[in-house]
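Retro notes (design track)

What went well: tokenization of the new backbones is finally stable.
What didn't: we kept losing track of which sequence belonged to which structure.
Fix going forward: every design gets posted as structure first, then sequence, in one message. First example under the new rule, 210 residues:
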């Protein structure tokens, strides 16, 4: 900015002219930059606080029972919807509702989890459970559309087993056998749950006592 070819007075005048042209944009840039940094720090602190509060609320829900647990879960879903704990709360409440024979309420919780989280570890269990509720209600087409996904993201065996159950509901034993066999192949070796799949496969092949 300072040019030795000019006298101090000339340099001062040039500096004034330069400031008239660029001063405002520099100030705005500094303010925006500082604001952006402050905004990032604020958001980081906010999300950390939200996560900590949600974690505490989730712990309370897991140790509570009955209406207290339901209230804690509902507050998580309402006040901390942006955290993974809200989706976990929805899964927990859906399980409680289903156990109480309230399948519609359970389905509502599962739909909430599907619509309000993008985490595969929450979305897939919610999708699978909701499809099972629909299947039990005889809504086979709705259940099939729900599990029509391209990426199972580690839930391959669960999806294939469910497809086998749907095939059984349609009376398609061949499709059920294929789905159960694929589910068994994708299951972790030695999994105790494989016994149930073997029973389903035997039933689909017409050998229930095998």
């Amino acid at each position: 900015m300072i040019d030795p070819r000019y006298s101090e007075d000339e340099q001062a005048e040039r500096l004034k002219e330069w400031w008239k042209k660029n001063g405002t944009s520099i100030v705005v840039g500094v303010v925006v930059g500082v604001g952006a940094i402050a905004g990032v720090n604020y958001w980081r602190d906010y999300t950390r606080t939200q996560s900590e509060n949600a974690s505490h609320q989730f712990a309370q829900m897991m140790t509570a029972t009955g209406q207290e647990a339901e209230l804690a879960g509902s507050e998580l879903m309402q006040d901390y919807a942006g955290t993974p704990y809200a989706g976990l709360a929805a899964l927990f409440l859906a399980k409680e509702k289903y156990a109480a024979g309230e399948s519609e309420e359970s389905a509502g919780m599962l739909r909430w989890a599907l619509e309000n989280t993008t985490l595969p570890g929450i979305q897939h269990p919610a999708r699978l459970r909701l499809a099972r509720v629909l299947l039990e209600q005889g809504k086979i087409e709705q259940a099939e559309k729900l599990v029509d996904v391209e990426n199972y993201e580690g839930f391959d065996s669960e999806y294939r087993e469910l497809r086998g159950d749907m095939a059984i509901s349609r009376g398609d034993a061949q499709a059920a056998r294929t789905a159960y066999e694929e589910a068994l192949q994708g299951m972790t070796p030695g999994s105790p749950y494989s016994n149930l799949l073997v029973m389903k496969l035997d039933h689909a092949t017409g050998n229930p006592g095998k």
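Added context from the reviewer: Residues 1-6, 36-43 have pLDDT under 50 and may be disordered.
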